[in-house]
Design goal:
Length: about 130
Amino acid sequence: MLQLKRPIAFIDLETTGVSLSSDRIVEIAIIKISPDGSRQVKRKLINPGIPIPKDSSDIHGITDDMVKDAPTFKQAGNEIKMFIDNCDMGGYNSNRFDIPILMEEFLRAGMDVDLSNRKMVDVQHIFYTMEPRT
């Protein structure tokens, strides 16, 4: 069992593409594990405000029609910020993609989110370290 000093939030994003600066989140899923072992889950579709390219929809299955009535990130940002407040962060390839694109969305929404005192656990980095490929 994980020995946690504070909650850890594992984040997975689906996006309109892979550009940190120009692409947008279309779905965010977070599993928050508390030091007592309890879990909370948040999953939310997000209207990116731009068309979702067919190539991206083919990968994650989320279409423009599915997000047309969903909140924008600016509308959902405070709820997400509060959910991950005081959490360490984790994910798969999260240090190179999910966390940076999430921070870009917070910046675009005019929200100040400081992750400098959070620990970051990138499962992909751990996997590649434990199972080196040559």
